[in-house]
Amino acid sequence: MAKCAICEKGAHFGISVSHSHRRSNKMWKSNIKSVRVKTDNGNAKKMYVCTSCLRSGKVERA
C-alpha cells in the first residue's frame, strides 16, 4: 500500500461492527494519487501524494 510522500498518510486498520455485533477486519484506504511534482531545484519527479496535501498546496504540480 502506498504512503503519502509529504504527510506519510497510509492505510488505517480497525474492526467493522455490524448491527448484530458481528465483528470483521476492515481497512480504510487513503486517497493517494501518483502525480508529477516540482522539486526544489525545478525538476519534475513522480511521487505518491494524498489529495489533502494536493488541495492544501503543500506540493506544486509540474
Q: Indicate the radius of gyration in whole angstroms.
A: 16 Å
CATH class: Mainly Beta
* Count of helical regions: 1
Using the 3D structure, state the CATH architecture.
Answer: Roll
How many beta-strand elements?
4
* Residues in helix, %: under 10%
Given the C-alpha coordinates, what overall shape results?
A: rod-shaped
> Which fold name corresponds to the CATH topology?
Ribosomal Protein L24e, Chain: T
Encode the helix/strand succession as letters: EEEEH
Strand order of the largest sheet: 1-2
Termini separation (Å)?
24 Å
Q: Multimeric state of these chains?
A: single chain
Uncertain segments are: none
Organism: Blautia argi
Keywords: Ribonucleoprotein, Ribosomal protein
Family: Belongs to the bacterial ribosomal protein bL28 family.
GO molecular function: structural constituent of ribosome
Q: Layout of helices and strands, plus pairs?
A:
Elements: E1 12-17, E2 23-28, E3 32-38, E4 44-50, H1 51-56
Antiparallel strand pairs: 1-2, 3-4
